[in-house]
Design brief:
Blueprint (H helix, E strand, L loop, with lengths): L16 H15 L5 H8 L3 H7 L6 H4 L4 E9 L4 H11 L3 E7 L6 E9 L7 H9 L4 E9 L1
Antiparallel strand pairs: 1-3, 1-4, 2-3
Helix pairs in contact: 1-2
Length: 147
């Protein structure tokens, strides 16, 4: 049997509400309106298990038509090992770093932009962002582009 994924374009009016809530939670995370998955699920009224069950299978039309590259803007504390921890976390999640741009730290804050190919990642992009935001020295993460 062929294990190729098949996608359907379906009007959201006929889908269970849970799918709309999962898409809404993903959008809250992508736009930065929710800082963590816990925040997004609380705001949309779904359980964490529901989010994880459907997050990699339910997409808005625009999200499903995107590629697999995500560009993150990170605001970091100027401390040894912070960037190394981020790179290690991306590697653990099987993300492939495409670019890294780091500015000179000002007032103990470093700004870094990272582009990551997410095709081979074990979990979804939201999980990566959630895990990165929990690392010591990570003050803020914003998704600035998805392709």
């Amino acid at each position: 049997m062929d294990n190729k994924k098949v996608f359907y374009l379906v009007n959201s009016d006929i889908l269970p509400d849970v799918f709309r809530h999962v898409v809404a939670a993903k959008k809250l995370l992508t736009t930065g309106q929710a800082a963590t998955i816990n925040d997004a699920i609380r705001m949309t009224g779904i359980s964490r298990s529901t989010f994880y069950k459907y997050k990699d299978s339910v997409f808005s039309f625009s999200e499903g038509s995107r590629g697999k590259i995500i560009t993150l803007s990170l605001t970091l504390s100027d401390m040894p090992g912070v960037l190394s921890g981020i790179l290690n976390m991306v590697a653990e999640e099987m993300g492939n770093i495409l670019t890294i741009n780091q500015n000179i730290p000002i007032h103990d804050t470093a700004n870094v932009t990272i582009s990551v190919d997410t095709k081979q990642m074990k979990e979804g992009r939201e999980t990566l962002i959630d895990r990165l935001s929990g690392l010591p020295g990570v003050r803020k993460i914003e998704v600035i582009a998805q392709e």
